[in-house]
Fold each of these.
Amino acid sequence: MLKKIIQNDLKGSKLVSLTTFVFILFASFLLSTVAIIAVNLNSSVNLFMENVKTPHFLQMHMGDFDSERMRHFAQSNEHVLDYQTMPFLNVDASDISVNGERFTENSQDNGFSWQSENFDFLLDLDNKIIYPNEGEIYIPLVYDTNGVLKTGDRMTISGLDFTVKGAIRDAQMSSMLASSKRFLIHPSDYEKIRSVGREEFLIEFLLKDPASINLFQGDYANANLESNGPTITYSIIKLMNSLTDGIIIAILFLIAFLIIIVSFLLIRLTLTAKIEDEYKTIGVLKAIGMQLSMIKKMYRAKYALIASLGSAFGLILSLVLSGFFLQNIRLFFGESEHKALAIISAVIASAFIFAVVILFITLFLQRLKKLTPAAAINTGIVSDGASSLKHFKLRKQNLLSTDLFYGMNLILTRKKTYFTFVLILIIASFVMILPNNIYSTMASDKFISYMGLGNGQAMMILAGKDSLNDLNSRLENDPDIETYAIYDHKSYEFMLDENAISKMWVTLGNHHLFPVLYTAGHAPEHDNEIALSFLNASSLDKKIGDTLTLIINQQKTDFVITGIYSDITNGGKTARATFSDNLSDSLSTSLVMNFRKDISIDEKLKSFEQAYLNAKVYNIKTYRDAVFGSTMNNIKISSVIAIILSVGLTLLITLLFVNMLVVKDRRNTSILKSVGFTNKSLHTHYISGSVLLVIVSMIFGTVLASTLGQSITGAFVQAMGVANLKFNIDKSFVFFIAPICMVAIVYFGTNLGTRSIQKIKVSDYIRE
Amino acid sequence: MTTIIEARNITKTFGQEKNQTVALNNVSIAIKANEFVSVMGPSGSGKSTLLFALGGMDTLDEGCVYINGVSLYEMDDNRVADFRRKNMGFVFQNPTMLPSLDILDNIMLPSFEDYKNDKSALTQKAQNLMKLAGIEGTENRKITEVSGGQLQRASICRAVLHGPEILFGDEPTGALNSKSSEEILDLFEELNKNGMTILLVTHDAKVSARANRVIFMKDGALESELYFENEDHQTRLVLINQKMSDLGI
């Protein structure tokens, strides 16, 4: 009997059944794929980091280095298992040429190193340790995949030629989020080019127990060892390596979640309509003694079939297509050793989708328990709660025509029925607008302020201060330059508490000329004032008005915190002050400038590049594009996909929903036809309702995208150092294009869905 | 009297080929203005189909229907609906009211567009009609808050509020108790006295006895008819039952 019920059920609702099947299939596909990627990513990254022997603690340091003192510390510290110091030679892009052309990739710090002896190995694409011969060079994998360099290229560094032999997997610096990239060469070649760059040290420790990292970090800080550079731990390296694919996992999971919610809404919609249609029949079945469980089984049967097929096909699809999603993981980290576990996880994910669908239907059908046979048979009244409203009367309103009134009345009297539809429209609006908001925010000029750069047009970075005096006088006398500011970047020790000392990057200069975005307070104005980046303030638990003690030239000096700003540079942990200090070494010097109108910025920057070969010169927008270009491009693509998805989802749901309403309303439609309402009037009832709902949903969706969406995005970028992210919305899209698009789609879908009204004959539904 | 409804050779079939049923078989009929006509016949004789066909609420396989000389089936759907709204009223066996409106809004709904600028006049007219139908005081009630008889009377009020020339009724008392039935039929007689043409479909001889013309149908065709003038109710009943017996209905 169940077979027959399923067959008849499927025959009567082909489109809805197919749509539900497709939704469940996609949900199962995405969740299974998430499981496969997550297991493989975790396994590949773990295995890769094991092969690399990634350090648990890494201190980058520029400047003098007392190797004997460091060795003594390492040997005497109870947590240390192994210790090494690797040189890292920073070379400016201007000193590198590829096949005779200038090397263009200068948004990253390019450095050279040789193969480690004990740990932190650089591996080939088979995860084997590489030992290059003289004249050979191995390039960062990301340069190979981006097409910046390729195997066989000739690289020339300070007159010394190298042949690119291949790409390396680097646990520390592979990610585009790491600002440095490591090239691998022979130790003797390293010596030959040593004089052309600035040498930095990677002070690396392997710990006996990785869990003791915090204790070790405290020991290192208290020992007052070399620390003129960022500190990186094992967990941060793992996070950076996993982040790109982790974001894909998060996005796929989010889409799977949305699809399953839409599937639930769809099932709820179709089941409600069906139960209402068969209200009397259910009453009769109960009256003749059929058990509730059997009745539930009858209604669940079709969905059980659809859910099992959808989940199974989704699983198969994910197994077939997961290779595409695993390409990046395989390339950067190598094969996973838990392939079987990945498949088992995918099967569990798929089964989970099936179980959740069945559970949802079972819970939904609980409402049949309350239905008494007498009520169902006698009244046959549908359960959508449609009944007249107390204050919204046709005879008491003057604004709306009869058709518009009836359209509104249908919505207000059947809120439960329309609730699902509105919810989907809100989700669709949200999905349509949020990625666009993120993109327009990142593309706006204001976003540069979050990068700690202020609102300048161009920027120069000088490694030392040698050419500063000359540059300063040139800028002062240059009529094309409107404003400029010089910033000195130094590293200072500061008091963590009464005993502990740590280090902080401080930018000195006038911070009023090119203000960054202050989330609280203002830029420092006096010599005893300091502003902290958001991440710094958070980790030090400091607020406006608190005091911070810096150690400047061995003197403890107190500073009052005047402001907290967003900054994503240097790991997001920076500070800004105005005092002068000519005694401490500078890490670098930067200049930010604005030009007068009608000046070609690019030509001007070219002249600077030619005049100061050691300087890195950027148009700020180009710099932003270099840092965020690929992210922005991905978000733009996501935004277009989101628009297509939203439009598709809206059209499909509108079509299905209106179609179901028309079927459900056949008797009422017949009544209206019998008393002289035209097809045009009946169309107007549905269209006025749909358009009203899509407008309301758009308002909710837009507000949610700008509030909840902003909070979600804000929470995500907060970890990078951007506090209180404020969306810079594209008004023409949010207030004009998106609403018109949604209204047009809903109008079109409603029109399409109500076409069958013309075929409804009064005699078919009123005749007894 | 002028002919208000005229059907010429109308044929209507249901189903396809082997399973085809002829509901109306080449039926021709003319009804004059202000007539009170009842159509009788056994279940499946085609009486309801005839009513729907004459009201322009169905499609025809063959033939044509004229209302006041206007050919119904030559108009498009929208024009037929509009024509129906202005010239006809319908009452069905079970009340056909919309659950999202209260009783008074239900009654006023089809006439509302014609009284856009004078809603109070329409409201007054509807309330007068409700009083005449004996359902005053139910204006603000939901359709689930009144009895079946009251709901049917409200249906009649809706059907006649805009002052149509013709009132069609498909077993209008079929779902009511005898007291309610009598009251509804009294209302029909009252409307007929005021000039309205009434065409009812029924299988109840008592209902037909109120009409001044009774048409008998069998197997989709008109078999016979009776005309009444001054006969009392009992005589009409005897004559109707006699005719039904003669026709084997």
Amino acid sequence: MRPQQRKKLGYIFLAVLFFTCIYSFSGEVLAQEKEEVAYRLKWLFNVSVVGDLWADVNGNFAANGLQVAVKPGGPERDAIKELELGRAQFGVASADQVIRAVSKGSPIVVLAQLFQTNPLHWIYRPAKSHFKSPADFKGQTVGITYGGNDETIMRALLAKYHIKENELNLFSVRYDYTPFYQGKVDFWPLYINAQAPIIGAKLKKAGEQYSFVSPDDFGIRFVANSVVTSRQMFESRPDTVKRFITALIQGWREALDPANNERAIKTILQSDKETPEAIVRQQLPVTRSLMMPAPDFPFGKIDAAAWKQTEEIMLSQNLIPKPVNVEKLLKPPVP
Amino acid sequence: MLHRRIYQFFIIYFLGLAALMVIKYGLSLSDYVIPSPAEIWQTARRFFPIYFVAVINTLSVAILGHILSICLATIVGIIGRLTIWVGSFIRVAAYNIQAYPIVAVAPIIFILLGDGLSSRLLIAAMICYFPLLLSFIGIFSEPVYEIEHFFESTLKMTWWLQVKIRAFENINKLITVIVGSATLAMVGTIVAEFIAADAGIGYSIRIALFQSDLAKILVALFLIGVCTSLYLVWLEWIGHLIQKRWEIPEGG
């Protein structure tokens, strides 16, 4: 190699080194400006996480000095376990998950309750199955997911109305709706905000009428998704917790505001590319009614009585060995 | 052979369990993330009878599925050894079917066959038959020149005789691959039960997962390991008997 070429290569090397240093430094500065936290959702990106996505996309987290990695959940992902393992600082879990975890010594606290009414309902065909009260379950085939919270809710409903298990047929439910479409099962569990518009569209196409059973209407108040964090996080970083929950609740309020309907739909569609827009348009108002029962409802309010009932249901079904004093877990850092 | 395989399994299982405990107590994790030894013991005492019946149920389906896949692989292997169009078509079809992930095909199987025994059987067979098929095609399409040449030159060669010669010459390979695919039959059955069935240990694991109950899953894994070891030992014993029976006595 000639000395001139060597010199040239030296300059190139120095230039690359210089720009690498500048790039790394600027990255560090940006990272220092915002506190990084991870937020593990309960389920995949869909209408049930519209507020979480909104807070991320529309800058609510950033405005509160946070850089939040919003991670989708799924059947194998458990936010509470991730909190304990330090992979996430905040998460979404259902009340039964929270109570089960606490009964096994998991140090977690509840910051906000997302759904005020549990979205889990049972769909049925009024033309085939008459339903006025849970007594009408007698002699019918009712779908439940063994081990799932729909089993717990259905058993609580049956116990409340003194219906014995041998007075109806319980059917083991899977992701596949064929047994319901075929009429083998009379009542099928689904999430009324996310799944009902899709299933309803298929039934409508087949010229069938459908309706829903809400356990909430019959006095079963089993809490669904809530925002949780570890007790350590809650006690050692109260400012971060407060900023996170402030940003999140702001995001949810804005996303559920009917005035922001179009932007909320756009936000969902950016992350959930599988669901058609027409379905999302039907899903959003249902989600709004489950989370904001009234326009001035304080979003995220923790319904302590419903949590207490959830704990009692789990105790009565031996899902937890002893009470966990659920009221001690409910720690809303009111923004 | 039996006791060696069982205690080897015990060593592996308890080493795995010990590693979990090191993580649990090293990171101060609650019983929700990793259950304590006391909880695992209590769960084992409470659920052993239920899970034992479930594992036996799974094992019986796995054995049936394994037999089915051996028959299927033998038939496809014999036909697939041919160089004619039908042989190549069968091979391509077999490879393509295997290329589809079972979780994608399972819903179709369950729509057609329901969530009973037949679906579990078919999925178990589908998962374990491919390694069998590959070996069977390889063995049945590899000529044994020194023997086959004699029958060919005397014009006494038939397709059945050809298959018998090749199977006899490769009996060790055949037994090894059959024993090896037994674990896949068990895995296939558990996967089928996990996706959509209402019986078997895969179904029990699914419920335990819904309840975030790792203690139950660890108990289930223990029973699956013991039963799979027993099945493998039994297969090896059968293979040993076949080998002894086919052995050429000394002096001719």
